[in-house]
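Check this:
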Amino acid sequence: MALKIMNRQKIVEIDMRAVRRLVNAVLEEYGRADSDLTILFTDDTFLRKLNLEFRGIDKTTDVLSFAMMEGDGSVGPSEAETILGDVMISVERASVQARRYKKPVGHEILKLAAHGVLHLIGFDHASTDERKRMRRIENRHIQTVLDRT
């Protein structure tokens, strides 16, 4: 697996080892441990531009995932499907949300990383049940990573 993490912001110091552990755990759980992906930590301005360009929504967002393959998260990849895609996270938005939810910003960053990776694997949150399922998975992996730090 090749996990590339890029930090293009100076707002928050990010625990890259915790992010790496979380991403590896999520990928392993879903049989995607050999997958390649990139995570970019950036700002609201960049995510707003991407959100407008790719989704037609002219406002910032916390996380965007750009999957190389579409899927439902239920089957393992073929060798040609090892590149999952890219996850873009606004650290500015994560900071605002962390204050709103009364959580450390590191917790919110891990939540967004898990959320983005789950989207790459094929999860969606169009239904309430799927949203709850994603939240349970995110929280479980965040807690496991935080327990190890």
The chain has a mean pLDDT of 91. The two ends are 23 Å apart (CA to CA).
